[in-house]
Design brief:
- It is a single chain.
- With 194 residues, this protein is an alpha/beta fold.
- It is built from six helices and eight strands; from the N terminus they run βββαββαβαααβαβ.
- The chain has one domain: P-loop containing nucleotide triphosphate hydrolases (Rossmann fold, 3-Layer(aba) Sandwich).
- It is 34% helix and 26% strand.
- Helix 6 links the parallel strand 7 and strand 8.
- It starts with a strand and ends with a strand.
Length: 194
């Protein structure tokens, strides 16, 4: 599904070069649940941004289902992100004036064949909280809305950047368990940075 070949990311600040990624090579198969661990500043978020087509490598190639993502133009990258990638962020990025259901439905407008909103609410265990606003939800519930927002697009790959970073330990474990369960039951590939 996903292959990275000799991926580098070098940031240049004046005469200084910062190597965020250096010679990254790996493959991810359909339906895998991958966790990327490392200390702060080790390039984990940069890696997700490159996989998701938000950033480009300084050199190397990223292939998604045999398509060279690094060769896509801006329009191609936008289509790739829209159709193939679901994003879950550390900060939930929910619109406070929309209900949980409305926040999820907003993402469904980006794709041709979205999943049913009630189905994804059921998958993340929030069907009874659909009409609640983010301020009426716990941190774990807000993160599950974010996961549902990624799921509604029906992507083959979900990238989660520190999805438990704003949650207490126990709630964080529950959110990871939900994601792992979705991976198994739905066959969606997850790459989680934590």
């Amino acid at each position: 599904m996903l292959t990275l070949e000799d991926v580098w990311k070098i940031y240049r600040i004046g005469n200084l070069e910062v190597h965020a990624l250096k010679e990254v090579n790996f493959e991810v198969d359909e339906g895998e649940f991958i966790v990327v661990l490392g200390p702060s500043g080790s390039g984990k978020t940069t890696l997700l941004n490159i996989i998701g087509g938000i950033d480009t490598p300084s050199r190397g190639k990223v292939f998604f289902r045999n398509t060279d993502v690094t060769a896509l133009d801006e329009e191609g990258l936008t289509l790739h992100r829209r159709e193939n990638i679901g994003f879950v962020f550390q900060f939930f990025n929910l619109i406070p004036t929309l209900t949980a259901k409305e926040n999820i439905l907003l993402a469904s407008e980006l794709v041709e064949n979205p999943r049913d909103v009630d189905e994804v609410l059921e998958i993340v265990g929030l069907k009874d909280r659909a009409e609640h606003f983010p301020s009426e939800l716990s941190g774990g519930e807000q993160q599950r809305v974010s996961i549902a927002r990624a799921l509604i697009k029906n992507p083959p790959l979900i990238l989660a950047d520190k999805p438990t970073g704003n949650l207490d330990f126990e709630t964080g474990k529950k959110v990871l368990k939900y994601m792992k369960g979705i991976c198994i039951s739905e066959g969606i590939t997850f790459i989680v940075v934590t």
